[in-house]
Design a protein that fits this description.
heterodimer; A: about 290 residues; 2 domains; about 35% helix; rod-shaped; B: about 160 residues; mainly alpha
């Protein structure tokens, strides 16, 4: 006789039990929505020691993760700040020459207002003063009405004179050139002489009598006798003197920074020896 | 493959109880808990000779797991998934007993993934949306360990 698998036999009863167990769970899952808080509370009590043990570990892990996040955020912000700083430094370096030029232009403008002469501003395009037969090239020439032997100076002092003029540029003979001669005078003794260049930034005054009293640090001004510069423009300062025969050789450190001058003023041709006194500004004159 | 001695039912029950304890005690760490759960369902419970006993062990494991998590508003999904996968595994290994370790690991990996997907589907049906976690990865990565341990649990099936 063939056994009946779903009959009321031990094997059949086991099958019914399995089916009831599975269908019961399925019905509970699909239909049942009873809360199991007591069951959860019981198992929670059983796992309480482990929960307590793991709480500090989990907390420390969370703290470490938080610290890592903070560190990463700080590193990101630091990188952004560094990047910003680099871009600002690059921008600053890019703007530095323009700022310097603007400062010089402002000073040139102030000087132009102080000296009551018709002067032209020019820019030094090339400065190869230290090279053999070098000099300085200005960006103004015949087009701007420049001619030879016009005096050139900057806010710090006298720079030199126009040496050669082309259509759009002109070359400048600086004061420290060996073939440069400028009529100067000492500030205290009023002794006059001729300034000749002897090297970069240095010059010496000749044709001063050995009986003159010259002090180190004494200012040297233009005397105006060469009709290139008017009287009273600062040339430099005495750094030493020594007698040579009937003369007194006076060493002068030039006041104008010839290495880094960018903006200059060009004096008119054959200016007056004495500068006219500038008219007082309105509003500042006391009655 | 060499045939070691079959595991006595008493030891099998002891192993199941140890799995219960491990599931409860590893509740703060879902990764290791998933390993014990998979070991209980796919190795210990499915190795019992009686399908009814096997399903009871699997269902108990599911209820214990969900109860220890204390996360789900309604429970029962894991128990149903455990019973289903336990029955499938038992049927599979009864008809195709494991004959090589690596193929056995592959079969366990397939059953583990099926168990994972079915569990989450039924838990979603029961309790709603929930986090899936990375327990499946823990289970798959540790199959060479617990799969090798459980090989002996399924070997007696061939002799039945």
């Amino acid at each position: 006789m063939r056994p009946r698998p779903w009959g009321w036999t031990p094997a059949g009863r086991r099958r019914y039990a399995i089916l009831a167990l599975w269908l019961g769970h399925l019905g509970w899952v699909v239909l049942g929505h009873g809360h199991s808080t007591r069951w959860q509370a019981l198992l929670g009590t059983l796992s309480w020691p482990v929960q307590k043990l793991s709480a500090p570990l989990l907390r420390s892990r969370a703290n470490r993760a938080e610290h890592t996040r903070n560190l990463e955020r700080a590193q990101y912000e630091l990188a952004m700040v560094r990047q910003r700083l680099e871009s600002l430094q690059m921008e600053n370096a890019r703007q530095a020459p323009r700022l310097q030029e603007a400062d010089e232009a402002i000073r040139i403008l102030g000087l132009k207002k102080q000296v009551p002469l018709e002067m032209k501003a020019a820019r030094v395009m090339v400065n190869v003063r230290t090279a053999p037969f070098g000099g300085m090239i200005l960006d103004q020439g015949l087009d701007a009405g420049l001619v030879r032997d016009q005096g050139v100076f900057c806010p710090e002092g006298v720079v030199g004179r126009i040496w050669e003029v082309s259509q759009r540029e002109s070359s400048l003979l600086p004061l420290d050139a060996y073939n440069s001669s400028t009529a100067v005078m000492l500030a205290q003794s009023r002794a006059t002489g001729v300034l000749q260049g002897v090297g970069p930034g240095r010059a010496e005054i000749r044709y001063i009598g050995s009986q003159e009293v010259v002090q180190v640090g004494e200012p040297v001004y233009t005397s105006g006798l060469d009709r290139v510069f008017p009287r009273g423009l600062l040339v430099g300062y005495v750094v030493g003197s020594r007698p040579e025969g009937p003369e007194l050789q006076v060493d002068v450190a030039l006041a104008a920074p010839l290495n880094r001058v960018h903006q200059v003023l060009i004096l008119p041709t054959q200016p007056r020896i004495d500068l006219p006194v500038p008219a007082p500004r309105e509003g500042k004159v006391k009655p | 493959m060499s045939q070691p001695a079959p595991l006595a039912p008493v030891w099998r029950c002891a192993l199941g109880l140890l799995c219960f304890a491990a599931i409860i005690l590893s509740s703060p760490w879902p990764g290791p808990q998933a390993i014990f759960q998979a070991f209980l369902v796919l190795a210990v419970a499915s190795g019992f000779e009686s399908p009814l006993v096997a399903m009871l062990w699997a269902a108990a494991g599911g209820w214990i797991l969900e109860g220890s998590l204390r996360m789900y508003p309604q429970m029962g999904g894991t128990a149903l998934a455990n019973m289903t996968l336990c029955a499938l595994t038992q049927w599979h290994f009864k008809n195709r007993p494991p004959d090589h370790k690596t193929s056995y690991w592959g079969q366990l990996a397939a059953f583990s993934l099926g168990h994972f997907v079915l569990t989450h589907l039924l838990v979603r049906l029961t309790a709603g949306p929930h986090a899936w976690g990375m327990g499946w990865l823990w289970v798959l990565l540790t199959i060479p360990v617990w799969g090798t341990l459980s090989l002996r649990l399924h070997l007696p099936v061939r002799r039945r």
